[in-house]
Design goal:
By secondary structure, this protein is α/β, with parallel strands linked by helices. It has an eight-stranded parallel β-sheet with strand order 8-9-10-11-12-13-14-15. A seven-stranded mixed β-sheet has the order 3-2-7-16-17-18-19. A hairpin with a 2-residue loop joins strand 17 and strand 18. Helix 5 packs across helix 6 and helix 7 packs parallel to helix 8. It binds N-carbamoyl-L-aspartate and zinc ion (2 copies). One zinc ion binds next to loops.
Length: 478
């Protein structure tokens, strides 16, 4: 049987290495060719992309689908619909669910549920808290591992926390044996608590403003990253550090990369887009707003990190909670949950930074597509638009202006911390393996279309930017 062919005509293809005026010819699930626009070859169907941007489908290494256990907040269907609407074709989800995914049995159960529901390709980072399960989870196809150092209560579940150096060392050794990635949320929990109580003792209210300020203090992140990197140097485990926004952490991570330590760095937009004024108007929805966005030096370090490639990827930390769940945070920030939905507006938010001159478009595309694909060992099957790549595509209308609004979203919780902001540039069509899964505001995929992405064991590969996009010239910032 011959494959159905599709021609995406008239768009500008953007990848990490630059832009190209070319049509995309797709055959079945794969990219068949990049065509000169004058090439007369015909296809079974055409998609008009005149005036639009054509990007590889976005890949997210930080999803919280909330399944199992918290399906009132989100599930695999709603999370993946939101992802598709935001231009994502692949995500990897996190183990802080109920019960946490720390055994092969729980992993298999989760996988069975997702197989029925997920409409994007998906993977799962399992918790490495039971040493004897680590090799078994790897063998069962875990995409990688994830643990937290922040702890207290859900969603920062103490059952998924590892901070003690002896435990870190034995865990890193066991994961290094598997060749898989381990994602870490670094945090110096006891230091944070002490600093927070000191602020309160000085007379500041124990509220979400004080919390946001202390939660994002450089030392709280830098100290944790320093210890993680030292343990990593002993073991060679491939590590990805998330939520990176502290200049002190970036300095340590840049040095480790230069030394060849196999570490990659993720940041997520809420750390450098949510402001103190958003907390005033939105309460806990806008955490961690404030302490980073009000500090020009901290902001400059983040843009610098993204520009130089010290920050490899921008993940979503799509972490939905119901609005009523956030009232607990407002009552007692030390025990309440926070986190926010991000899939549907992340690309538009980041495109506004490109427009503002904070970030180059090809760096953004790299951080959202090629870099995460390389980290998972999937490149160029994913994260690229080359002959033979999966036909995972997002078409963006760069001129479409809109305001994200609560109540108009695919995610179950149906609110956004960017409510009412003005964005320009929006995904209008998403294709996964040759099938349109989102178009004209409608989801067009059936539940279960997504396929599981198993972990690919890799030799430690330092995430130095020069290795990751040799064709790209780094421009000094003026
Ligand atoms: C996440 C959550 O709600 O699961 N919360 C958050 O802070 N965004 C957990 C996490 O990523 O730390
Ligand atoms: Zn986290
Ligand atoms: Zn998270």
């Amino acid at each position: 049987m011959t494959e159905t062919t599709t021609r995406i005509r008239g768009g500008t293809i953007h990848t990490s290495s630059g832009e190209l005026n070319a049509d995309l010819l797709i055959s079945g699930e794969k990219v068949a060719a990049l065509l000169d626009p004058a090439n007369p070859v015909s296809a079974d169907r055409e998609i008009d992309a005149q005036g639009k941007w054509v990007l590889p489908g976005l890949i997210d290494l930080h999803a919280h689908t909330r399944s199992p256990g918290y399906e009132q907040k989100e599930d695999f269907l709603t999370a993946s619909r939101a992802a598709a609407a935001g231009g994502y074709t692949t995500f990897v989800d996190m183990p802080n669910v109920e019960p946490p995914t720390v055994t092969v049995e729980l992993f298999e159960e989760k996988r069975a549920v997702a197989n029925e529901l997920c409409i994007v390709d998906w993977g799962h980072f399992v918790g490495p808290t039971q040493l004897e399960e680590i090799p078994k989870l790897a063998k069962a196809g875990a995409t990688g591992f994830k643990f937290f150092q922040v702890t207290g209560g859900y969603p920062h579940d103490p059952r998924l926390a590892i901070a003690d150096p002896a435990r870190l060392l034995e865990t890193f050794e066991a994961i290094a044996e598997t060749g898989l990635l381990c994602v870490v949320h670094p945090f110096a929990q006891t230091l944070f608590e002490s600093l927070y109580h000191r602020e309160v003792a000085k007379g500041r209210p124990g509220d979400i403003f004080t919390f946001s300020d202390v939660y994002t203090r450089d030392i709280v992140w830098r100290l944790a990253v320093a210890i993680l990197l030292e343990v990593q140097r002993e073991t060679g485990m491939r590590m990805q550090v998330v939520h990176t926004h502290a200049p002190g952490s970036l300095r340590l991570l840049a040095q480790a990369k230069a030394d060849g330590v196999p570490v990659t760095v993720a940041t997520d937009p809420k750390y450098f887009h949510l402001r103190e004024e958003d907390i005033r108007s939105q309460g806990a929805r806008a955490i961690p707003g404030g302490a980073v966005t009000t500090n020009p030096d901290r902001m400059a370090a983040i843009w610098e990190g993204l520009d130089s490639g010290v920050i490899d990827i921008i993940d979503s930390d799509h972490a939905p909670h119901l609005l009523e769940d956030l009232t607990l945070m407002e009552e007692d920030p030390l025990i309440g949950p926070f986190g926010s939905p991000h899939y549907e507006h992340l690309l538009s938010l980041m495109l506004s930074d490109v427009q503002a001159g904070n970030l180059r478009l090809n760096r953004l595309v790299h951080a959202l597509t090629e870099a995460p694909a390389r980290i998972l060992g999937l490149y160029p099957r994913k994260g690229a638009l080359q002959p033979g790549s999966d036909a995972d595509v997002v078409i963006v209308d760069p001129d479409l202006a809109y305001q994200p609004l609560d109540g108009q979203m695919e995610c179950k919780s149906n609110w956004t911390p960017y409510h009412g902001r003005d964005f320009v540039g929006k995904p209008i069509l998403t294709m996964l393996r040759g099938k349109v899964i989102f178009s004209d505001g409608e989801i067009t995929a059936e539940p279960g279309y997504g396929r599981y992405i198993a972990g690919v064991p890799q030799e430690p590969a330092p995430g130095r930017p020069s290795d990751m996009h040799p064709g790209l010239h780094l421009r000094p910032r003026s």
